[in-house]
Structures are given as C-alpha cells and as structure tokens.
Design a protein that fits this description.
CATH superfamily of the largest domain: Single-stranded right-handed beta-helix, Pectin lyase-like
CATH class of the largest domain: Mainly Beta
CATH topology of the largest domain: Pectate Lyase C-like
Number of domains: 2
Number of helices: 2
Distance between the termini: 23 Å
Number of strands: 34
C-alpha cells in the first residue's frame, strides 16, 4: 500500500487530519486511475465577486479612545470592561474605537463584542492579550450576528503557553460568526489555545446564519495550537496577502482548514497570494460540503503534511501556486474529491520526509498525488521536481 492510498482509507473513515501518525515510510508510488475523466465543471458564480470586497459602512461621527473609558494598557490591569464600554458608548449608527499602544489584558471568558457599523482601530504597538484561563473555550474578540465591522492593526495574543487547563481546543483570537461585511486588516494573531481566526455561522438547521462577505487582508496568524484559520459555513470569503504559519499542538494543525462538514455549506472562497509555512499538519486542508474554492498565487512551504490536501472536497481551482519543501506532496486530492482544476503550479522538492529537498527527480507523486476514487480532476501546465512530468496532463 502506498502512502497516499493509506491516507484515502483514513479519509474515508472520517479521519480528522493528516499527521505524522497517518503515514509510514514506504516508497512513494502514484496509483492513477486508468479511466477517462470528463472536463472539470464547476458551478456558476458571480464573476470577480472579490474585487469589490465588502462595502463596509462605519459610523462617521463618533470616535472613542479606550483610555477615556478607563483602559490602562499596562499589561496587568483587566481592560476588558473598559474596551467594551468604549464600544457600547458609540451611537446607534456606530463609529470608531481607537486602541493606543500598550498591552491590554482581556478576560476571554467575557470577550470583546463588536457592534454593527463599528471599526476597532488598533495602534501597531497595541496588543489585546488573553488572561490565562483553564477554560477549553474562549474568545478575545467576537464578531457575532452583526454587519459592517472592521478590525484594523495591532496584535491579538493568546495564552497557550500559560494555559491552566489541558482539555479542549477552542480558544479563539477573532471569531466571526453569522456576520456580514467584515474586514480584518493588518492584524497579527498568535498563541491561541485553538484557532487564531474562525469564520463561520451561528445557529443550526433552519436557523443557521452563515457569515457573508468576509475579507482577511494582510493578517499574520502564527503559533496557534489548532490552526491559523478555520472556515465554517459562510460564503464570499476572501483571504489575501496573509500568512498562516506554525500551527502545532492539536489536530488538524493546519494553516487554513475549510471543514464545514454537516454544519452547513461553504461556497465562493478565494485564497490569494498567501503564505502557508511550517504548519505541523497541512498548509491548507479542505473537506466536504464546499464549492467554488479558488486557491491561487499562494506559497506553501515547509509544512509537515501536504502543502494542500483535499479530502472528498469538490469544485476546486488550484492555480499558479508555489508548493515546495513540504513533508508530503505539495498537492493531494483524496477520497471522493471531484471537479478540480490543477493548472500552472510550480510543485517542486516536496516529500521531504522521504526525499532530500535538494535531490531532483522522483516520481510524480513526490509533488502531486491523486487518489483512485477521485473524479473529474484536470491537470495541466505544472512544473514538477522531475522535468519529465512537466508535460503531464489529465
């Protein structure tokens, strides 16, 4: 059994993630299905929906400095109530809350809740830091069931090194759920017990309220215990010029995990010009109940698992990415994944857990692995470690 066939079986049995435990050191052999596949077809969606980004309407008349409400930013005092008071003091049409330089301690069991039409504007030297807790679930910033919110600048830092408990995996830096027209820009998020950022829904079943029109711009999410970013039920999520690195501690340990499963669908997501590096799991992980996911212009490097791995995930466009020096292949599609276009990527020097990153050649599955149960996988115009596969099409 080759390395990828083993992963397919694990994926079929609802294996949550691909880690070092999933694989054994055996020769890499690509088992391609000897069938003729139809041209990749994807659902029709609005063209270039991401180019306009959310048109976020923020209140224009009111600006409140958190220090006027008693926040100290001294790294000792609990500033949660003061920051929330600044937000709550804005008029009904919203406004801007400013956070000057300083270290503001936050009780993440009573998180900062943003209101509609509000901008949280942090100085580049401002940090919202979670006070250590034993709770398995917490949040520093909640953006729940609101519309038109911007979070700009500064740092949001967790307490994973000082965490007082040992259970759970749901300590979040920024949690955007059931909200519309949200922008997170130029924020550093790090060291959380769970995920740096989550985009998803509130409610369930007929009451499910997915997020819509969420943009993540120039965000760095690093050293989080579960993953850099999770995407649950949502649509029109645009993530660009951002970095997701160093996820490690509890599965899936991915840079980004798009894993709605039976919670509700994810559609129209674009990951563009991001870096996924040094995550202990996969750089990008994708699961079922998704559609119209475009992964373009990204760098996937040094991840312990795959650069990106799709497990029974349909309707993907994977183009113009650079995947190199990942522990397993740069791109893997497994389970019942279908309708995928893999074009114009440079996928070289991968499978470093089995091959030297400086050694040329190897089989195609060093860089690209396609499972035998997949269908409608289109491959063309890619560059691989072994040049003889550069003309490979499917």
């Amino acid at each position: 059994m080759n390395i990828f066939s083993k992963n397919q079986k694990l994926a079929a049995s609802v294996m949550h993630s691909v880690t070092a435990k999933t694989f054994v050191k055996k020769p890499l052999i690509l088992a391609l299905a000897a069938i003729t596949l139809s041209a990749t077809a994807v659902p029709a969606f609005a063209t270039d929906w991401w180019s306009a980004k959310p048109d976020v309407v923020i209140g224009k008349t009111a600006t409140v400095d958190v220090r006027t409400k008693g926040a100290l930013g001294d790294g000792v005092h609990d500033d949660t109530a003061a920051i929330q008071a600044a937000i709550d003091s804005l008029p009904s049409d919203g406004g801007t809350v400013t956070v000057p330089a300083g270290r503001y301690m936050i009780n993440a069991l009573k998180p900062i809740r943003l209101r509609s039409h509000t901008r949280l504007l942090m100085d580049s030297m401002a940090t919202l830091a979670a006070i250590p807790t034993s709770a398995s679930r917490y949040w520093v910033i909640k953006v729940w069931n609101v519309t038109d919110v911007r979070i700009v600048g500064g740092n949001v830092v967790g307490e994973r090194a000082q965490h007082k408990g040992s259970t759970g995996e749901w300590g979040y830096g920024i949690n955007i759920s059931g909200s519309k027209n949200v922008v997170v820009k130029a924020v550093n998020v790090s060291d959380f017990w769970g995920d740096g950022v989550l985009v998803g829904a509130t409610g369930s079943g007929r009451y499910l309220q997915p997020s819509d029109n969420v943009t993540i711009d120039r965000v760095v999410s690093s050293n989080n215990r579960r993953q850099g970013l999770t995407i649950g039920p949502s649509q029109h999520v645009y993530i660009f010029n951002s970095t997701f690195q160093g996820s490690r501690g509890t599965l899936p340990e991915a840079g980004i995990d798009i894993e709605p499963q039976d919670q509700g669908p994810v559609s129209t997501v674009r990951l563009e010009n991001n870096t996924f590096a040094d995550n202990h799991g996969n750089g990008i992980e994708l699961h079922a109940n998704i559609s119209d996911i475009t992964i373009t212009g990204n760098t996937l490097t040094g991840n312990h698992g795959f650069g990106m791995l799709a497990i029974s995930a349909p309707y993907l466009t994977i183009t113009n990415n650079n995947g190199n020096k990942n522990g397993l292949a740069a791109v893997g599609v497994s389970g019942t994944t279908h309708n995928v276009s893999i074009t114009g990527n440079t996928l070289q020097w991968n499978s470093t857990r089995y091959m030297s990153p400086t050694k040329s050649g190897g089989a195609l599955d060093r860089d690209l692995q396609i499972g035998t149960s997949t269908s409608a996988i289109s491959v063309s115009g890619n560059v691989f470690s072994n040049p003889k596969y550069n003309t490979y099409t499917r």
